[in-house]
Amino acid sequence: MCNLYSTTKMQDAIRQLFRIRHDRTGNLPPLPGIFPDDRAPVVKSHDGERELLMMQWGFPSPPNVNGPLVPKVRNVKSPYWRGWIKPQYRCVMPRTSFCEYQDTKPRKTPTWFALSEERPVAALAGIWRPWTGGAAPRPNRSRASTCSTAF
């Protein structure tokens, strides 16, 4: 999956599909373009019940790398990821479609994929973690927790 997806269905559809007990997102607008470092809805378990909340997409880089946010887990055997792939840190990231770019010239062409023309709610597997590090990359952005797609 590319680094772009969308969640454009009403939050009631998300609550029903994932049997959400607690919705902490407020008034969730359609999100037609979610990129790494954007805040997006995430479903996770809290005290045995599912909750819907907003998290920032992308993990901080490993301490020895000091690089950009990591939006995708690729090497689950890495010591950096092992602690975060435990069941208590698993989540799903609701989405209605995702985008892949075709390498066309002079510019890449976006191609969107969904389960059907109606673009029903589906999800990406993810992991999340609390964030207690330094300032968020963008000004005035809190980073109480963050998530990353896992595959």
Question: What would your notes on this structure say?
Answer:
The protein has 151 residues and is mainly beta. The chain has one domain (5-150): hypothetical protein yedk fold (Alpha-Beta Complex), CATH 3.90.1680.10. It is 7% helix and 40% strand. The chain has helices at residues 11-17, 79-82, and strands at 5-7, 22-23, 31-34, 39-46, 49-57, 72-73, 90-95, 97-102, 109-113, 122-130, 145-150. It has a five-stranded mixed beta barrel. A four-stranded antiparallel beta sheet has the order 3-1-8-9, with no helix packed on it. The termini are close together.
Write the layout of secondary structure elements.
Blueprint: E1 5-7, H1 11-17, E2 22-23, E3 31-34, E4 39-46, E5 49-57, E6 72-73, H2 79-82, E7 90-95, E8 97-102, E9 109-113, E10 122-130, E11 145-150
Parallel strand pairs: 2-5, 5-11, 6-11
Antiparallel strand pairs: 1-3, 1-8, 4-5, 4-7, 7-10, 8-9, 10-11
Annotation keywords:
single chain; 151 residues; mainly beta; hypothetical protein yedk fold; 5-stranded mixed beta barrel; 4-stranded antiparallel beta sheet; 2 helices; 11 strands
In short:
With 151 residues, this protein is mostly beta strands. It has helices spanning 11-17, 79-82; strands spanning 5-7, 22-23, 31-34, 39-46, 49-57, 72-73, 90-95, 97-102, 109-113, 122-130, 145-150.
